[in-house]
Write a structure and sequence with these properties.
RNA-binding; 4-stranded parallel β-sheet; 462 residues; alpha/beta; single chain
RNA sequence: GGCUGGGUAGCAAAGCGGUUAUGCAGGGGCCUGCAAAGCCUUAUAGACCGGUUCGACUCCGGUCCCAGCCUCCA
């Protein structure tokens, strides 16, 4: 039984699909004006784990993740780069897809873009104006009238008066109320614009998600997610817009992924401490990065630092070490492995609000079991190795060949290393251990580790 | 100030009202020419103060501290 923490109620709830035959989930995606950073990696992987689990438990899941391809930051960046907006956004969309593949993130079913969803936004804004919940200000911008939506604040547990009290003094005379937010803004000269019933302009940020989500998933769907920082105001405003326009519950369960910290500090541009995914990939492989992200619960803060990352790599190495050399596929043997309850416990962990740390700990139990059986009962060890890979696959790890994992990114060729191993074997046979150790040390200096086993010497990267 | 989370062993990170989390690092041992890997074994916890209970890291109350949101941000 799947339980999910719902921001709307601030508690874990049993997930009750609107239609068990078809689950709908919407996630707020990237604003594409730069390369993805590690914070993006975190929510991309988190929702990848979530949707993978949903897909195994329900016959059909529709995962929609939008792309914001028009906003101030994009416009400014295009001007800075002297680059066409669509060229800029396409470049970073392609880069995002590349990063996702490196992290083992599966594609969403639909990836709608704001600029391709303008008509749906018009439709919703019109509905809001007709109901008197939205109005056009003196400057032509269209605003949402927050006071006319009675449930405003229900997601983020805020009430309007507290918000007013805490608000920055923003004398925005075009609004009826300082808390009102923009649905459609008039274009300034030289800005990209679309014709609308209210004048040439472009959409406000929040309306695009309401429009795209309801267009692809209907007025009422199961799950909606994003980073915690989107809870207010973005998701709060999405609820106001969608429920205001459609007069029905927008989303049953709201999910929010915790923040990523950098060396225990908040990641921010002013501290200049943000890392792009591709930058980190120069030093760590994508799978280790993915493991690092899954090593804490998706709602907890996650601290990005070298120690934690190398820890993740070491941990993943232990799992690959367990399956190494046990690649043969044998469905019958997997059945044997099934008599242990690893898989049930693994699934139960994910059913408990996607508890990846527990799920991973079960993987280590299987690894230990394999190591114990390796000598005694190779058949069973092989079956357990298959089980380990299968469970790993459920969360997007352990899917590559162990030899590939152990030999990636090494500066010498296989032949060169094999040559060294032969030399060393000769030295060892002659009991010339000084020479033998020297060869091993030389390779170690190149991050190549030699291991003498009963079937000869094997090697792996550090 | 308001709202939401959180404070667990050397580090990271979970579950749980009474019995081993897990990974890395540390001690001892097995294996090895020596290592590495692996196995066995071992030490180190639950911010503080009260309360409930036969029994609390786990529930309740209070105190202190930390983080996030309240302004664009995953």
């Amino acid at each position: 039984m799947l339980k999910i923490y719902n921001t709307l109620t601030n508690q874990k709830e049993t997930f009750q699909p609107i239609n068990p035959e078809n689950i709908g989930i919407y996630v707020c995606g990237m604003t594409v004006y730069d390369y993805c950073h590690m914070g993006h990696a975190r929510f991309l992987v988190a929702f990848d784990v979530i949707t993978r689990h949903l897909r195994r438990n329900f016959p059909q899941v529709k995962y929609v993740r939008n792309i914001t391809d028009i906003d101030d930051k994009i416009i400014n960046r295009a001007i800075e780069n002297n680059e066409d907006i669509s060229t800029l956004t396409q470049r970073f969309i392609d880069a995002m897809h590349e990063d996702e593949r490196a992290l083992g993130v599966l594609e969403p079913d639909v990836e709608p873009r704001a600029t391709e969803s303008i008509d749906q936004m018009f439709y919703m804004i019109k509905a809001l104006i007709n109901k008197g919940i939205a109005y056009q200000g003196k400057n032509g911008d269209v605003y949402y009238s927050v006071r006319d939506f009675e449930n405003y604040g229900k997601l983020s547990s805020k009430n309007l008066d507290d918000l007013v009290a805490g608000a920055r003094v923003d004398v925005e005379s075009n609004k009826n109320d300082p808390l009102d937010f923009v649905l459609w803004k008039m274009a300034k000269p030289d800005e990209p614009k679309w014709q609308s019933p209210w004048g040439d302009g472009r959409p406000g940020w929040h309306i695009e998600c309401s429009a795209m989500a309801t267009h692809h998933l209907g007025n009422h769907f199961d799950l909606h997610g994003g980073g915690v920082d989107l809870t207010f105001p973005h998701h709060e405003n999405e609820i106001a817009q969608s429920e205001g326009a459609n007069d029905c519950t927008f989303v049953n369960t709201w999910m929010h992924v915790g923040f990523l910290k950098i060396n225990d500090e908040k990641m921010s541009k002013s501290l200049n401490n943000f890392f792009t995914i591709r930058g980190v990939l120069e030093k760590y492989d994508g799978e280790s990065l993915r493991y690092f992200i899954m090593s804490s619960h998706y709602r907890s803060p996650l601290n990005f630092c070298d120690e934690n990352l190398s820890n993740a790599k070491t941990a993943l190495t232990r799992l690959y070490t367990a399956v190494r050399g046990l690649n043969a596929s044998n469905p019958a043997m997997t059945q044997v492995a099934m008599r242990f309850d690893y898989e049930n416990r693994f699934n139960a962990a994910l059913d408990d609000d996607f508890n990846t740390p527990i799920a991973l700990s079960i993987l280590f139990e299987v690894a230990k079991h394999i190591n114990n059986e390796r000598e005694n009962d190779p058949g069973q060890a092989g079956a357990l190795a298959q089980l380990l890979r299968k469970l790993g696959g459920y969360i997007g790890i352990l899917e590559c060949d162990a030899e590939v994992f152990f030999k990636q990114g090494v500066s010498l060729s296989d032949a060169e290393i094999d040559g060294k191993i032969c030399q060393r074997d000769d030295a060892r046979a002659a009991k010339d251990f000084a020479m033998s150790d020297q060869i091993r040390d030389e390779l170690m200096a190149l991050d190549i580790i030699l291991e003498d086993g009963s079937n000869g010497t094997t090697w792996r990267r550090k």
